[in-house]
Amino acid sequence: MAFIKMKTRLLFSIFIFYSSLGFAREVSIPIEGKKLSGELNIAGQNKERVIFILSGSGPTDKDGNTTGAPGKNNSLKYLAEAFNKAGITTLKIDKRGVGASANAGIKESDMRFSTYVEDVKHWTKFLEKQGYTEIILVGHSEGALVATLAAPSKLVKGLVCIAGAGRPVPVILREQLKPKLPKDLYMVADKAILRLTEGKMVENPPPELNALFRSSVQPYLISWFQIDPVKAISEVQVPVLIVQGTSDLQISTKDAKLLHAGAKGSNLIMIEGMNHVLKAVKGDLPNQIKSYFDSSLPLHKELAVGVIDFIEAVNAE
Q: Which residue, of 78, 116, 180, 232, has the fewest CB within 10 Å?
């Protein structure tokens, strides 16, 4: 194990181990007296470029796996490995309260969407201190929006949104809830969504909706509901790639097209048969759900190739 000393205002710890794909470093940075952790895998000869991968919503770790789930899909782990095999360095992070960053969690009532964005900015400063001057942000699902909002950093040279929403969360949430809830309960949920969109708390949500609208999570929802993904991506000045699978049951091809239209000069890749966890899976809901917890399924073969081609094109500009 080697220890690296660096002159920086941000104190951090680095632990190095060797893998077949390069040197993988367990890295961490301090935030408000706590520690955020991730993995930096150094690959190839280009020591200036790094792909910074951001995971999706909920308790999803750096590898794309959900805490408490019955199995792992390893989607982001496999994606990072594909980039490493192509000679590109990657950074994956465990966000607050998840994985190796579990102790960096804060009270749910204090969380805001901007918290994740600010954390990403701290990580980009860390990468700058390591000598990286070409950061490509790759965000999956909710991570796509986090990456979009963090993209204005002077170090960010490209943005990749994979399975990112193109409509505000309230619109998508209503779309998802309507076919699943009884009509009377949906009406209650609809009113709750409207109230949160207006920046107001919802008092005493019914028990059936408490998991979604519990009082402690409402401040986070209010902050998230205010963001328009299309407006956000329209303000990004670096090259943008939008990637969407046609078998995704959570985010539609419509969302990808909206983001593509909003991001001036962006590239769009539609991957036939790729689902939300980036696997080649078609078919009914049970078959799809199984893939969320099955690490034996590889990534869709077109995904990494498409992203790498985009990155090489950005580098050639």
A: 180
Number of structural domains in the chain: 2
Residue 226 lies in a domain: no
**pLDDT for 189-206, tens place per residue?**
999 999 999 999 999 999
Q: Which H/E stretch holds residue 67?
A: none
User: Contact 1/15 with Cβ under 8 angstroms?
Assistant: yes
User: Residue 293: helix, strand or coil by DSSP?
Assistant: coil
**Whether 198 and 63 share a structural domain:** no
Residue 219 token pair:
């401040």
Beta-bridge partners for 138: 53, 160
Residue 222's nearest CA partner among 94, 96, 112 is 112
- Shortest CA distance to 135 belongs to which of 226, 40, 202, 70? 40
Q: Give the phi and the psi of residue 103 in degrees, each rounded to 5.
A: -75, -5
The position carrying tokens 């749910």 is 108
Specify whether 74 is located in the same domain as 117.
yes
Per the listing, tokens 């950093």 go with 153
pLDDT one-digit tens code per residue, 133-159: 999 999 999 999 999 999 988 899 999
